[in-house]
Amino acid sequence: MSTETNTTTATPVAPVASPSKVFIGNLAFELTEEDLTNEFSAYGKVVLARIITKRNNSLGYGFVEMEDEESAKKAIEGLHKKEIKGRAINVELTKERQPRPPRQPRVATSPSTSDSTAAPRAPKRAAAKRNGGEKKEGSNGEESKPVVSGDAENNTTGARRRNTRRPKTGAKPSDSPASPSATATTSTSSTGVPAERKAKAPRERKPREPKEKKVVEKDTTPREESKDTVFVYNLPFSYNDEQLLALFKDYTPKSAHVIINPRFKKSKGFGFVVFDNAEQQQKALAVDKTKVEERELNVRIALVDNKVPAATSPVATTETPAN
User: Region (Disordered) spans which residues (predicted)?
Assistant: First the structure.
């Protein structure tokens, strides 16, 4: 009697790279390395926590190295499939990457070796004779005329036309007839283009005239400090005229205007505030360095042109005009 033995082959498992280093997947994109450290510190000392990023954006996975193997196993048991910031994370030991087998060099196949077994092609003249150029005997024992194929007939017709071509006007006929080969080479080339063709003279290109550089004139208009207007910049982009006016309510402002981008219909982040007199203007400078919506305001005395009177400065009032 023969006994059958069942042999089972074990599937190869990648060796563990580090018994104290774990891989974490399916992480929330807003999760930080500090959050990972806080989660894993409940199971032991965290040596290193790292989230893999690309262009400062999280890729959703990372690694945590614990102090010892026991702490890593506890972290896997406690945090695997635990929901953190709306996502159930995957925690497992890191596995060592197996080396790839070397690639085999490619063997280049030349066309001479690939076509060595193919039968050589017969020349065209031999093929023409084989197709019907040979003489055949008729039914009465007489020799029949050679049968010429279509391609051969076209070739002979073309040669006959070239040989019977008339000479050009004004040319003297030669005493001896020219050979067909000489006539063909002098009249046309192998591509059918006349052999004697005058080369075209290259076109003359005119040199380009240098472009005139535009000179931007700087504004040299003299300016002086306004006596009733302040310039406010680094404003929140959500601010409008009323909110800007409310910032200076303790100094009795007359009007305020936030400059708007006409293309995008949004604030440019700066504006002007007009007061009744210079005294209130000077007091309003105390608003400088005040933080509004996490932005530090900058307040300066506005500058106006000498030619333009102060009443026509580019400051619009927030009061609605009467109809």
Answer: 87-225
